[in-house]
Amino acid sequence: MIETIRQGLEEDGFKLSISKLCQWFDMPHRTVYYKSVKARPKVQPRFAEPIKAMINEEPSFGYRTVAALLGFNKNTVQRIFQLRGCITTLVRQSRRHWANAYSPKV
Fold it and tell me: Does 80 lie in the same domain as 49?
């Protein structure tokens, strides 16, 4: 944000340092220079390919079923489901409430 403001001001002919802009916006200058260290999660092909093949073959399987059939850890399979966007949705039928079934007969 600060960098885009600085570039916009520089195009208009105003040359300001990042430190000065951070002071104006009451923002620590360290946040401008911060680069995230966390790497994107990597999916190993030896896990992803059999899981993808099984999902294409039987799309109704969830991560637990796939993990049991392939012999993988269910947490690994669930993470691959989430990263690849192949989370299956479970449609549950609503419970029937039998309000009158247990009411005393008059």
Answer: yes
Task: List, for residues 19-44, the tens digit of each pLDDT value.
Answer: 888 888 888 888 888 888 888 888 88
Question: What are 3's two structure tokens?
Answer: 């960098």
pLDDT for the residue numbered 95:
64
Q: Give the number of domains in the chain.
A: 2
User: What angle, rounded to 10 degrees, do the helices at 74-84 and 63-70 form?
Assistant: 130
Chain Cα centroid distance, residue 88: 15
Answer whether 70's CB lies under 8 Å from 58's CB. no
Task: Say yes or no: 52 and 25 in one domain.
Answer: no
Give, in order, the Cα–Cα distances in Å from 93 to each of 25, 43, 90. Answer: 53, 34, 10
